[in-house]
Amino acid sequence: MKKRALFGLGNPGIEYRLTRHNIGYRVVEALAATLHAPPFQTGRYALHSQITWRGIQWNLFLPTTYMNRSGDAVAYWKKQIDVELSEIIVILDEIQLPFGTLRLTPKGGAGGHNGLQHIIETLKSTAFPRLRVGIDKNFPMGKQVEYVLSPFTAQEEKHLEQVLSQAAQALITWGIEGIDRAASLFNRSFSTLAE
After folding, report:
1. How far apart are CA 92 and CA 128, in angstroms?
2. Residue (of 85, 95, 36) closest to 60 by Cα position
3. How many domains does the chain have?
4. Is residue 11 part of a domain?
5. Separation CA 193–CA 35 (nearest Å)
C-alpha cells in the first residue's frame, strides 16, 4: 500500500496554538477533519492519526517537540512507518510569502526556518517535499520572533478558513497525484486580504 507522512510544524502547548508559527499544525488538523481521520493519539515525539483512504495510508503528525527540534519527530516516524523522503511532506509557516499564499516544492533549503533547518540536518537531505503557507512579514526590524509567536489578527482569522481548506486540498492532491500536479493547481494566494 502507498504511504504518505504529513508533518505540520508548530510548538506544543495551548499558548502557541493560534500563533502564526503553528499554521502547520492547523493545516494538518484541517486535513484530518477533511479525511474524517480518527482522533490524534500521543506517540513518541508527535501526535499521530492514521487513516486509509483512496488506497493510501495517510499518516498525519503534529510534532510535540518544540519547533527547533522538529527533525526528531520526522526522523523517528520516517523509520517507524518506513517511508521514502518523497512520501513525506512538511507543512510550515513562511514569512517570505504574503498571507494566505501556498507554495509546494519538492525540495530546497531551510530559508531561515528553524524547524525546517533541524529536519534537513536530521535527515541529512533537502530532498523532501514541503508546503509553505504564507504568514507575511508585517513586523518591524528585529521583531520576527515576537511576530511569528503572535496570534493572527481577527481579520486574518476570518480568511484562514479558506486558506486551511485549500491547503488541505493541496495535500490531498500531492498525496494522490504528486507534487507537480499539486503545485500547478495550488501555488497561489487563497486570501483576498491583500486585494
Report:
1. 13
2. 36
3. 1
4. yes
5. 28
C-alpha 20/C-alpha 8 separation (Å) is 13
Indicate whether 193 belongs to any domain: no
Q: Mean of the pLDDT values across residues 30-56?
A: 98
The C-alpha cell 481548506 sits at 165
**Annotated catalytic, 21?**
yes
Return the sign of the alpha-carbon dihedral for residues 30, 31, 32, 36: positive
98 in any annotated domain: yes
Domain range for residue 36?
2-186
Asked whether the whole model's pTM tops 0.85, one would answer: yes
- Confirm whether 192 is domain-assigned: no
Torsions phi, psi of 160, nearest 5?
-65, -35
Burial 145-179 (b: 16+ CB within 10 A, else e): eebbeeebeeebeebbeebbbbbbbbbbbbbeeeb
How far from the centroid of its chain's Cα atoms is residue 190's Cα? 16
Q: What is the pLDDT of residues 148-183, one digit of tens each?
A: 999 999 999 999 999 999 999 999 999 999 999 999
* Catalytic residue (one of 21, 48, 118, 159): 21
Percent of the chain as helix, strand, coil, to the nearest 5: 45, 25, 35
Q: How far apart are CA 9 and CA 5, in angstroms?
A: 13
CATH number (domain holding residue 128): 3.40.50.1470
